Predict the 3D structure of the following.
Amino acid sequence: MTETTTKTVAILGGGPVGLAAAAHALERGMEPVVLEAGPDVAHAVRQWGHVRMFSPWEYNVDRAAERLLDAVGWNKPQPDQYPTGAELVEQYLESLATRTVLKDRIRTSSRVTSVGRVGFDKVKTKGRQAAPFEIRYQNGKGPETLSADAVIDSTGTWFAPSPAGAGGLPAIGEGEARVQAHVAYGMPDVLGRDRARYAGKSVAVLGAGHSAIGTLIDLARLKDQAPATEIYWLLRGDTPEKAFGGGANDKLAARGALGAAFAVLVAAGKIRVEKGFRVSHLSRDGERLRVGAGSACCGRYVTVEELVVATGLRPQLDFLREIRLALDPALECPPALAPLIDPNEHSCGTVRPHGARELAQPEPGFYFAGIKSYGRAPTFLMLTGYEQVRSITAEITGDHEAARKVELVLPETGVCSGPGPLATSGSGCEVPAATAPTGGCCAPAAPQKAAKPQACCG
Ligand SMILES: Cc1cc2nc3c(=O)[nH]c(=O)nc-3n(C[C@H](O)[C@H](O)[C@H](O)COP(=O)(O)OP(=O)(O)OC[C@H]3O[C@@H](n4cnc5c(N)ncnc54)[C@H](O)[C@@H]3O)c2cc1C
């Protein structure tokens, strides 16, 4: 039996999964309100707009969102084509947010700063469940408050990158302004917007997931145009081959191609590989940046002009301090989800179906969804998020049967199978494929000797 009262559901974050949640909530007769921190929806996706996605359109569009778009005469993109992040926004998310009935339910430039329950601090139990949620947010005009019956937190992880330090703590010196000026996190657009910063420079990329690999491939293309560009790949693990991925076995073909293209570049010596490089210190060395591994005095180091850190992403939990949360101690995701997505155990394609039940929190009516629901696990696919919000919205309306009936078929992959640097230190499977390079950067070149790490103690 489905309850009939209109419920307001606050959806935190207007990324692909947040917007899909709003579409599902509307279909179920609820009133969604999307709060998006950025000036436009999909603010995070816009940051990696230059990256070509590894999943084609058929995996990137939510069904309820599609139904809303169909009603306004949407030209659906070719299902087998691979959009860039920018195309995902232009051809899908932007239309969803501005042309459909969702447009009056999205508040942009609205950063959520705290969530609680009206009249109930975290400790108070009796009657808690019946109290509405209170969501505070900032929209430039001052603090605003929204009251809601349920909350879906789909604020993503893009704006909380992991630091360079090998142990998960920032490297010594990482926070200093002189250092920060030469460190970028995530995936800078080295061939476009950020070209001037990297062309002809020595650049180290730290990480072994798809973000790192995509950036390294783009840097190799940049080197074709600006031959003075020097590229270092710093990886914590000892087996670079793991980053070459599933190749032809990856059912997401673009992702397999990325790994294969990368293997060619490494074999050709276009990218200098520093394996077992566990960053501990960052400091300025004249005009250059000294990236050290081991002790400050006697460890290995490389000196470069720029460092790109792609060591993974984390969920931001500070604004949920008054919400009763249960999180897996390692992954920072809902505990029931952890065994399904643990990158120590699973490949992307072996994540079992899951929905409201696995995503539930001790706080009734509060759910994580989208990439944030995976905490630090690098195995998220958009399709998974769409299924999550279908199930969650069914559960919120009391349609427990539909919520339970989770049907999720994911493409298998050999890319992040099992433990290793790809699974543990990189942005991993959730992250992208740059367009597999077609130019000269993939052509075998005369092998180069990998640069010997320098060490002050010989
Ligand atoms: C480079 C890259 C490529 C990827 N390629 C693929 C792919 O090919 N296929 C695939 O299936 N998956 C891919 N992913 C993984 C994943 O599907 C995407 O990260 C996707 O954008 C996740 O959607 P989301 O809605 O959960 O989060 P996000 O897209 O990160 O959206 C979260 C939103 O919340 C907003 N926000 C953050 N904090 C607040 C706050 N306090 N208050 C209000 N709003 C806030 C952000 O501005 C953002 O717009 C990729 C990820 C990356 C990083």
In short: The longest helix spans residues 210-225.
